[in-house]
Amino acid sequence: MTLVLGPGPPADGADAARAQERHRELLAELPRVREAALSWRNGLAGLLLALIGFGLIRGRSEIDKVAAPWHIVIGCLLLAALLVGALGAYWLLRAHNGKPALTPVDFTTSTVTQDHLTARAALGDLRRGIVATLLCTALLVAAVGTTWYGPEKSGPKLRLRTPGTTLCGSAATAADGRLTLSTKAGRIAVDLADVLTVEPAEQCP
């Protein structure tokens, strides 16, 4: 069997129109990617601003209310959110502005092809920046949620020694010469006249 190759049909007006449309799409490809990167960069900037505001303005007072070791967990979540957000900002900035390096002169490749390759690289940075933005959001939400709904730090404890026993708990009320302690067994009222010693305690057994 002999394969014969020959010229195809001549291009018509529709072929020329499709080629021109494809050329226009390639010319607009890089600006579209960089415009999307700018929008995501602005959104990530708002997240980082909220993260810094929570960490520096309200974070210390809010985190101190959470019981150990949850305050360490919150700190790690905030640090991870900050690092991921910074990395995402770098990717989005690179997607919008290009790599901070000189572009090599290539006379063998057309300008449209070079722009297409640049757009592909920018699109990769944009996708990585979007993932980093979403991950930064998730980490920030986890940190705020843990701060709001984590176990609260318990108040100071008192250890009372009486002639018959030793009690440990947090002071609830004091009236009429009696002190009420909130212990693991419930509330116990103690006559202050029977108390031998009162000591602060970090935790109750």
Characterize the main sheet.
5 strands, antiparallel
Helicity, as a percent range: 55-70%
Shape: rod-shaped
How are the strands of the biggest sheet laid out side by side?
4-3-2-1-5
H/E series, N to C? HHHEEEEE
Q: Kindly report the average pLDDT value.
A: 76
Distance between the termini: 94 Å
- Number of E-type strands: 5
Low-pLDDT runs: none
C-alpha Rg, in Å? 33 Å
Number of domains: 2
How many separate helices? 3
> How large is the share of residues in beta strands?
15-25%
SS-based structural class? alpha+beta
Keywords: Membrane, Transmembrane, Transmembrane helix
Transmembrane segments: 38-57, 69-93, 130-151
Can you put this structure into words, describing what you see?
With 205 residues, this protein is an alpha+beta fold. It has two domains: 22-99 and 109-149; 157-201, SH3 type barrels (Roll), CATH 2.30.30. The chain contains three helices and five strands, in the order H-H-H-E-E-E-E-E. It has helices at 13-63, 70-97, 111-149; strands spanning 157-161, 166-175, 178-183, 186-191, 197-201. The chain has a five-stranded antiparallel β-sheet with strand order 4-3-2-1-5, with no helix packed on it. A hairpin with a 4-residue loop joins strand 1 (157-161) and strand 2 (166-175). Helix 1 runs antiparallel to helix 2 (70-97), helix 1 (13-63) packs parallel to helix 3 (111-149) and helix 2 runs antiparallel to helix 3 (111-149). The longest helix has 51 residues, at 13-63. The radius of gyration is 33 Å and the shape is rod-shaped. The model has no long low-confidence stretch (mean pLDDT 76). Keywords: Membrane, Transmembrane, Transmembrane helix. The chain crosses the membrane at residues 38-57, 69-93, 130-151.
